[in-house]
Amino acid sequence: MSSPSVRVHRKTWSGAPAGFFAVEAAGLGWLSEATPVGGARCVGVHDVGERHIDLERLEPAAATARAAEELGRALAATHALGADAFGAPPDGWSGDAWIGRQPQSNEPTASWGLFYAEQRVRPFVRRAVEAGHLTAGGARIVERVCDRLAQGDFDDGRPPARIHGDLWSGNVVFTATGGVLIDPAAHGGHGLTDLAMLALFGFPWQSRVEAAYAEAAGLPDGWVGRVALHQLHPLAVHAVSHGPSYGVELVQAAARYA
């Protein structure tokens, strides 16, 4: 429990399902294990309950090119700390989790492509169709890519990375001392997934983040051509919750790999 003198930010949700805030706390703790070895800093957790989480209150500051480069290198260090398997949940948590308020599974899987297809893309494609936000024809295009993913066509031999999992610009807070990660959907995944999320919605000094990350992580030539593949998950998630325009974007991205 935090001291009354400590400034905290309380997030609440009266309808939170069991474990909603506990897995957020577990994810922040798991990602923070990389901070002492050069990994990204995460917001501190002061207290967690069934309907709330108390977090360190951050003082935002302007993003700079230097801070962006430092964030790129720090993300590479966080990812390099690794995970037990693709789909592995953060230490201290077992079972399903959430991205935003949408549930998703975290079942350890032998290969990235199989995990990504079956646990990150297909479930949301089905929900988007049910919601009327994705056409049956569009879903078939995405499903073809999922078939290729599950067969291993896009596996590249990189080991499971310790990723944030929901790294859009709103989940990075720049402070006077650099970028701080908040609100993760942490799991064992592929490092490009975090970069792809940053690129999808735009990010301050994005090219600096990417260049620093690519150098630190030793990304192979041509990695940019895989970014849209790693955007299928967030696009499918948004197709469920934010409407047909994201369904269109999802199909456009998938068509590059079908």
UniProtKB/TrEMBL annotation:
Keywords: Kinase, Transferase. SUPFAM superfamilies: Protein kinase-like (PK-like). Pfam families: Fructosamin_kin. InterPro entries: Fructo-/Ketosamine-3-kinase, Kinase-like_dom_sf. GO terms for molecular function: kinase activity. Belongs to the fructosamine kinase family. This is Fructosamine kinase.
